[in-house]
From TrEMBL:
Domain Reductase C-terminal positions: 317-396
Every FAD/NAD(P)-binding domain range: 4-297
Name of the protein: FAD-dependent oxidoreductase
Pfam families in UniProt: Pyr_redox_2, Reductase_C
Cofactors that this protein relies on: FAD
Alphabetized UniProt keyword annotations: FAD, Flavoprotein, Oxidoreductase
Coiled coil region boundaries: none
Amino acid sequence: MSGVVIIGAGHGGSQLAISLRDEGYDGAITLIDAEGELPYHKPPLSKTFLKQSDARPMPLRPASAYDDREIERIAGRASHVDIVGRKVALESGQRLSYEHMVLATGSRNRSFAAWPKASNVFSLRSLADAYALRAAMMETRRVVIVGGGFIGLELAASLRSTGRDVVVLEAADRVLKRVAAAEISAAVEAVLEEMNVEILSNTQIINVDCREGRVIGIETNRGRVTSDLVVVGIGADAEVRLAHSPSLATDNGILVDPALRTTSPGVWAIGDVANVMSRENGTRLRIESVQNATDQARHVARCIATSRVEPYQSIPWFWSDIGPAKLQIAGLSSGSTERIVRDEPGRLAVYHLRGADLVAVETINNPAEHVLARRLLAASAKPTAEQIRQGPQVLRMLIDI
């Protein structure tokens, strides 16, 4: 067999397989799925799936979508990649040859090196993780969440809505510090505090009290925090364990060129695992988001199917539903030199400028302005601070001409 072999069947891998056919590719397509599930939506795992005991995973598309397009799905895990021989070995012993290989292996949850093995400590990445966490919740009253990023805060809101007592431990001086402006953090914290979620910022873990295989307390610089159940959400690392060939360069992910090609011919990388040069600020970065994975998948499918290799140029955007707060981010704010805040009753918008350039917009409960922001960024519009303060009606004039 030759053709395209896709390792990883998450949002990116699944989209790539479908898009290859939609772009007219007529060669063999093989999708390797380590989980063995019909590819599913991951965002609901931290929300609806946990709150409803009978909730089932939401497939990205029905099995017939793959079957009708003659996409072979293999439930199994790739164990080795032979870059020179262009072959992928599976743990089952099966070997697949390829003309193009796409690494869509995603990322894996980061963990504390010194954290004890305990039956009541969980993380959330996969459907199996979500099933385990949901089962453990049934007899749990008090939950400690370690980490105030997107996943930790989504979980905090979801678990609190089911009646659990929830405490969030965050090492930084505010939640979402790595990804959002201070005004966004403050608004999200206010929403969670209104839900009676306790947020402890500037909190460092000193020791974990583990007895009979369970964590019963966590010693911090701010005192002892007791727990029935602990969820650790302190970030993720790129899943690069297959990329150990000397011809595949890695550094915080798999290094790819502007077209998403790796340093080895015929090998591409997309999604969380891909470290790509940002056209916005000229630095390398990995972007962990569903939309980034699916947009990159469509791009690589087009390149392979048409044999026309072009730079990937989509504007990144993100979202997170944290209780009643819908946080949406368009663009990348790193390196910005000025921000303009528009705070209106029930909604918020933060615009980031780098010199005269608009580079990112963060909004809460403001979907129309988020869509407008994406249009402004795609058009490389250069609104002034005064135009931003005047609001969407004025900003639309920059692109509706």
